C-alpha cells in the first residue's frame, strides 16, 4: 500500500474531499536551481492534488488523514494504459505493413499513421473501460485520521 498524508477540505456525508501536496524528486540534487527540468516542473506542476473518497470514518474539515492506494491497482492500471497500447501499436504496425502495400500505399508513413490511429483508439477505449470499471483495487482509501487542527 502506498500511503500519503492529506488534509480534509470538504465532507459530504460518506464522501470526503482531501488535498495532498504533490512531491517531486527534482529538489533532490544539488543542481535543482540551475536545472531546466527542475525549473519547468516547479513552474508547471500543480502544487496539490484533490481526491474525493468514500469512507465510513468520521472526519471533519482540517483533519489530516492517511490515504492509501494499493500497489496492485497502480500496477494493473499502468499495465493497461502503457503496455496494452504498446502491444496494439506493434501488432497493428505488423498488420498494416502487410496490408497497405496491397492497396498501393507503400510508404512507411501510412503504416505509422494507421498504427498510431489504431493505438489512439485503443488507448481511449482502455481509459474509458478503466474509468467505468467499479473495482476497489483502483480506489484510494482513508486508512487513519489525526486531528491536528
Structure keywords:
single chain, 149 residues, alpha+beta, 5-stranded antiparallel sheet, 3 helices, elongated, transmembrane, SigmaE_reg_RseC_MucC, membrane
Structure description:
- With 149 residues, the chain is an alpha+beta fold.
- Helices cover 42% and strands 25% of the residues.
- It has 3 helices and 5 strands, in the order ββαββααβ.
- The chain has helices at 36-44, 71-99, 108-132, and strands spanning 2-12, 15-21, 48-54, 64-69, 141-146.
- It has a 5-stranded antiparallel sheet with strand order 3-2-1-4-5.
- A hairpin with a 2-residue loop joins β1 and β2 (15-21).
- α2 (71-99) packs antiparallel against α3.
- The longest helix is centred in the middle third of the chain and has 29 residues, at 71-99.
- The radius of gyration is 22 Å and the shape is elongated.
- It starts with a strand and ends with a strand.
- The mean pLDDT is 82.
- Keywords: Membrane, Transmembrane, Transmembrane helix.
- This is SoxR reducing system RseC family protein.
- The chain crosses the membrane at residues 80-103, 109-130.
Strand order of the largest sheet: 3-2-1-4-5
Give the number of DSSP strands.
5
- What is the number of helices? 3
* Strand residue content: 15-25%
Largest sheet: 5 strands, antiparallel
**Could you report the average pLDDT, rounded to the nearest whole number?**
82
Keywords: Membrane, Transmembrane, Transmembrane helix
Transmembrane segments: 80-103, 109-130
Pfam families: RseC_MucC (PF04246)
InterPro entries: RseC (IPR026268), SigmaE_reg_RseC_MucC (IPR007359)
